[in-house]
Amino acid sequence: MNILLLIYMTVGAIIGLIMGALPGLTVTMTIVLVVSLTFGWNMVDALAFIIGAFCGGVMGGSISAITLNIPGTAAAVSTIFDGYPLKKRGEAANALSIALFVSLIGGLFGIVFLVVFGTLLGEVALKFGSQEYFLITLWGLTLIAVLSKGNILKGIAATCVGLIIAMIGMDPITGLMRFTFGSKLLGGGINYIVAMIGLFGMKEVFVSLSSKKTFKIENERYRIRDLFPKFDIIKKTLACMTWSAPIGAIIGLLPGTGGDIGSLVAYGFTKQLVKNPSRPFGEGAYEGVAAPEVANDAAIGGAITTMLTLGIPGDSITAVILGSFYLHGILPGPTFMMTQKNYFYLIIVFLLISEFIAYFLGILGSNVMLRMLSLPKWYLIPFISILCVVGSYALQNNIYDVLFMLIFGFIGYLFEKAGFPVSPIVLALILGSMIETNFRKALIITGSMGSLLASFVTRPLSLILLIIIIATFVTQSLILSKMEKLENNR
């Protein structure tokens, strides 16, 4: 292993941990900013840097959840339920030690899940035709619309906006221009990387500028030895990890879900299955910290499995990573395991090393990150703004990309204020061309709309996918209602 790659993973993990720990700065935004730094990099170096930031960001979300009662990431919402009560009991060090250790265990389980199911899914995906590609991309778009902030209509509306934007430029079948309004600037379409930087990075700048909210914490420090796992506490959480890790990985596998859904479901299952917790749930149960944390890290493996083998991102974070992979010449999808299998194993190695780096950095750097949590977000705004501008300009050395980035940042800000999710827009931008092209190819091959619809039920793989889409839609609707009940009971 090249020492330079270890440095990239370490620096990436440090950035991820810090950004993941800071409230409001999501892992998705972290990856967008990291990607903006890797333009022009060697493919392998960029891969190491991005994966390091990914692992660090997911692991860092629990720090502010436990110490501030504010989740650093959406996946750390469930950690608050028992993490903060532990902190109020004077056991913040125990809560942090559990969260960091089980995050490592969950991440390792996710990697094993990726190794086992990545190969199997890759073999099946090689048999996909245009109908199957259309259904699998539709699956991803439908789920992210349904699961975005629990509002189906707003999620679908955001997805439609993304699909319309994705159609700007040249028609992939006829070659004619559309939705350009005669402007040459729109002839090449909207670059999804520019849109991502605006929707996640610059949007956060606008949101921060409109908010005066700051976060303060007590002047406290933790001894490093207290942040290492304690055998007697971990022993109490082993049972809940046996089901929480598979729950996280399987839910991460479903397009449009991710660690935030996995962690809430794992917490709900644990609350039902554990009859004699270390303390009542909601009052500082160790199991209540372990279950969501192991699930949200296990979801990494599941989400990456779907992304690499099917070319469909498992959540908004892997949607950004998918875009960065395309940028650097890695082409996830059904042919990935056949044409670029060496990168599959390289990604596994990077994930494995990055999980351990993030874990030990989380222990060694917790006190530093706690100090950073007390800083106003105003210190970060100029830094984030510069990264957004430089990243969007460096993509094609085009000043108009900076203008588009600012426009998308403002759109993201308006969506945020109106309660509309921006993740579906990004997914639609990435998958829009794929879903349209495959639908129209299938229509040309079958000859008519009736024949196309019939082929969805006469082709075995299409029928299986159709059944899975319907079953998943129903299942996730039930999960959402269960999550709402769980939150109402809080």
Fold and architecture overview:
The structure is a single chain. Helix 6 crosses helix 7. The protein is built from 20 helices and two strands. It is mainly alpha-helical. The protein starts with a helix and ends with a helix. 54% of the residues are buried. The protein has one domain.
Estimate the mean pLDDT confidence.
Answer: 79
Q: In terms of structural class, how would the helical and strand content be classed?
A: mainly alpha
Q: What percent of residues are in strands?
A: under 5%
Question: First CA to last CA: what distance?
Answer: 47 Å
Strand order in the largest sheet: 1-2
Counted by DSSP, the helix tally is: 20
**Multimer state:** single chain
| Helix/strand order | HHHHHHHEEHHHHHHHHHHHHH
The structural domain count equals 1
What's the overall geometry? globular
